Amino acid sequence: MTTTTTPETVPVNRIGLHKSDYQGASSTLCNGCGHYSIANVIVGAAYESSLDPTRIAKISGIGCSSKSPAYFLGSSHSINGLHGRMPSLATGATTVNRELIAIGVSGDGDTGSIGLGQFKHLLRRNVDMVYIIENNGVYGLTKGQLSATADLGQKIRHGGVNHIPPLDLCMEALIAGCGFVARSFAGDSRQLQTLLKAAFAHRGTAVLNVLSPCVTFNNGEGSTKSYLWGKEHDLPLHEISFIPLDHEEIHAEYATGDIRDVTLHDGSIIRLKKTASEYDPTNRLAAMTLLEEERSGQHFTTGLLYINEERQTLVEQEQMVALPLVQLPPEKLRPPREALERLNARFR
Ligand SMILES: Cc1ncc(C[n+]2csc(CCOP(=O)(O)OP(=O)(O)O)c2C)c(N)n1
Ligand code: SF4
Ligand SMILES: [Mg+2]
To answer: Is residue 137 within 6 Å of ligand 1 at its C-beta?
Structure first.
């Protein structure tokens, strides 16, 4: 990769890279689009987590959201696939190279409509990746049609009134057995960046469903996907902080009942400080109840809805060799004819 020339006073992360080394091309999204704020948060989270950009694969489908990977991590691998097919690409890429850090970026249309089947099977398999849904309630790229996450009764300029109940993509993720389900808002970059760092440390699929307003087609009064609505209704479940494994604070002891630590498989910690309510993010039924109660539309709860570090990932379930398949020599990948005969003999 090429690194930019930066003055020595600019800080570097644990692997000696500047934040600018994680940036991408200039944005062509509309000014103020939530997707661009999320792109900047991904830059910050990857920098702070000291991820190696050459190990990252950005994978997306089709939509304004799906084209946003061009605007972050310019030195990483990237594939912009077919509409709704990002999960297949991610499954293939992480299966042949289990060392990849996969970041999937999708939209509510890309995931909730054409890609819903792919989404559910990715979660069922627990493919090791971060899956970001940039949810604006419309098909932004094709000029603002209502999507599967648009609220009942919602009006939009060109799409009329929505008479069909929405899908809740966090609920879909929980039902499919996803071990990391979070919800956030493009207008709260601090919370989103912390959740993203935790998602990078999670083993298995981590879904972040992020309210990401489309300022051109769905940011008006009454829209539950607008900046104003997000700001007025955002109800954080907890104050969240992420403590990486190599941080000295990880050994600090907290006696207060207001703090709950969730340890991730690599030893890093998600620290949740209680806000108003009691909430146990390891209780899947509690997460479902919370989402069900929210259908009234009074609140928009954000934070870590559910975490389960126990599930094996796809490559673990398949008992794949530790060495990534792409690094296996040809003689291991193509066993000789005698090996096939020995195998066949076992079934005779
Ligand atoms: C097979 C197929 N069907 C339809 C389309 C047209 N199309 C392109 S993007 C899109 C919807 C994108 O919506 P979303 O995923 O919510 O992304 P946004 O633009 O809102 O970020 C559609 C229907 C397509 N490209 N391919
Ligand atoms: S049309 Fe909407 S989603 Fe697309 S770039 Fe513009 S604001 Fe963003
Ligand atoms: Mg959309």
So the answer is: no
**CA-to-CA distance for 313 and 336, rounded, in angstroms?**
30
Q: What is the pLDDT of residues 52-85, one digit of tens each?
A: 999 999 999 999 999 999 999 999 999 999 999 9
pLDDT digits (tens, 9 = 90+) for 124-157: 999 999 999 999 999 999 999 999 999 888 887 7
Atom index in ligand 2 nearest the CA of residue 34 equals 8
95 touches 314 (CB < 8 A)? yes
pLDDT, position 274: 74
Ligand nearest to the CA of 63: 1
Domain boundaries, the chain: 19-317
Distance of CA 136 from the midpoint of ligand 2 (Å): 9
Please tell me which residue, 161 or 258, carries the higher pLDDT value.
161
Residues above pLDDT 90, as percent of the chain: 76
The closest ligand to the CA of 61 turns out to be: 1
Does residue 142 line the site of ligand 1, with CB under 6 A?
Answer: yes
Amino acid 255: pLDDT: 45
Class of residue 258 by CB neighbours under 10 A (exposed 0-12, middle 13-18, buried 19+): exposed
- How far is the centre of ligand 2, averaged over its atoms, from the C-alpha of 318 (Å)? 40
DSSP H/E element including 13: none
Q: Is the CB of 317 under 6 A from ligand 1?
A: no
b or e along 113-147 (b: 16 or more beta carbons within 10 Å of the residue's beta carbon)? Answer: bbbbebbbebbebbbbbbbbbbbbbbbbbeebbbb
Measured in Å, residue 300 CA sits from the centre of ligand 1 at: 25
pTM, two decimals, is: 0.93
Cβ of 83 below 6 Å from ligand 1: yes
Ligand 2 center to 105 CA (angstroms): 15
CATH fold label, 19-317:
Rossmann fold (3.40.50)
Q: Identify whether the C-beta of residue 234 lies closer than 8 Å to the C-beta of residue 188.
A: yes
Q: How far is the CA of 150 from the centre of ligand 1 (A)?
A: 15
